[in-house]
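During the reporting period the student researcher (J.K.) took over the structure-prediction task from the postdoctoral fellow and processed the backlog of single-chain submissions. One of the processed entries is reproduced below for the supervisory committee.
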Amino acid sequence: MPNKKLRLRDIVITTDKTPWAIATEDNQIVRVNRADMPVTEIETPNAKSDFRQLATTSDGKLWFTDFEFGTLVRYDPQSNYFEEWLLPGGVNSKPGGMAVDKDDRIWLVETGKNPNRLVGFDTGTQTFLTETAIPSGAGSVSHLHYFEPAGEMWFGTETNYVGRAKVH
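J.K. obtained the following structure tokens:
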């Protein structure tokens, strides 16, 4: 790798079979060439960002959360364009777990709120759909898993609960 300090997190593979990851130390997105494995580091708009989660939608766009600024960020590899949305909980929302459902809606947990909240975002209309408190409080939710056959998001909490949310 060109930058030996990269701490890669949340690798995803887009619809064109390209592996991507977020690098937490340098706040970059990293693209991996599958043929011979070199990486391309892509600078992101804010050097003080703290990226936590990465997902991809069926159109090949990358979505990630910025823990430091409470935003949902989209990167379009075709245009090299970034766009950000402030989460409903604002700069202190501290986004945790994130997943994408079959309709390309983003689901994430705001861990800076007590109780934590499950938030939905429609990538087509670019609007937030819902904010639902997690009854246990959750402490923090680091990961979400989408189970398509049942239309559910599953997650574990730091308060020793397993959660399930019906999203469609």
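The committee noted the following: The chain has one domain: 8-166.
J.K. will present the remaining backlog at the next meeting.
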